[in-house]
């Protein structure tokens, strides 16, 4: 590249608008078919675990507390998820959905990005169970 061509490009660039966007101050609308954060509806779930089996990134874990009473807890690892939509397609009961407006999922920390879905008492039961593995205890509603 000759110096004359380079100076010509520099002068042309001085009078052009920048091609970059001023994000986050100026935002465009999200695309209609954008795939982002996963949401789970536990009342529709039967615990078949097809979503967990078909997830290529191992981003889902489903803990079954009591299948008869439909007591489940789901862990969703956002940092593993590839947003491929395979779990949503595999779910026969329409209890998984990928949001199209919650796409800003970046984090400044090095902590794992994990979301735990389920009823509060079921989540607490699993936390207590992990804290005391020697004392299996029972779920208050299962006794």
How does this model look, in words?
By secondary structure, this protein is of the alpha+beta class. The chain has a domain at 32-102 and 110-131: Alpha-Beta Plaits (2-Layer Sandwich), CATH 3.30.70. It has four helices and five strands, in the order αβαββαββα. It has helices at 3-14, 50-54, 86-90, 120-131, and strands spanning 38-40, 60-66, 71-77, 96-98, 114-117. The strands form two sheets. A three-stranded antiparallel sheet has the order 2-3-5, covered by helices on one side. The chain has a two-stranded antiparallel ribbon with strand order 1-4. The radius of gyration is 23 Å and the shape is elongated.
Rg, Å, rounded: 23 Å
Report the CATH topology name of the domain at 32-102 and 110-131: Alpha-Beta Plaits
* Average pLDDT number: 85
Q: Taking strands numbered 1, 2, ... along the chain, how are they ordered across the largest sheet?
A: 2-3-5
Gross morphology is elongated
Based on helices, strands and strand pairing, what is the structural class? alpha+beta
Biggest beta sheet summary: 3 strands, antiparallel
Question: What is the terminal separation in angstroms?
Answer: 80 Å
Number of helices: 4
In sequence order, what are the helices and strands, one letter per element?
HEHEEHEEH
Number of strands: 5
The residue ranges in which pLDDT falls below 50 over 5 or more consecutive positions are none
CATH C-level of the domain at 32-102 and 110-131: Alpha Beta
CATH architecture designation of the domain at 32-102 and 110-131: 2-Layer Sandwich
Portion in beta strands: 15-25%
Portion of residues within helices: 10-25%
């Amino acid at each position: 590249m000759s110096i004359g061509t380079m100076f010509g490009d520099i002068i042309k660039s001085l009078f052009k608008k920048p091609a970059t966007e001023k994000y986050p101050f100026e935002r465009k609308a999200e695309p209609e078919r954008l795939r982002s954060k996963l949401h789970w509806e536990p009342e529709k779930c039967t615990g078949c675990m097809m979503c967990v089996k078909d997830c290529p990134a191992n981003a889902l874990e489903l803990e079954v507390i009591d299948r008869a009473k439909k007591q489940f807890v789901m862990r969703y690892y956002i940092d593993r998820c590839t947003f491929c939509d395979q779990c949503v397609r595999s779910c026969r009961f329409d209890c998984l959905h990928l949001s199209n407006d919650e796409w800003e999922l970046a984090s400044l920390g090095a902590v794992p990005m994990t979301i735990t879905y389920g009823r509060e008492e079921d989540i607490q039961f699993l936390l207590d169970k992990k804290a005391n593995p020697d004392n299996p205890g029972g779920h208050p509603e299962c006794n």
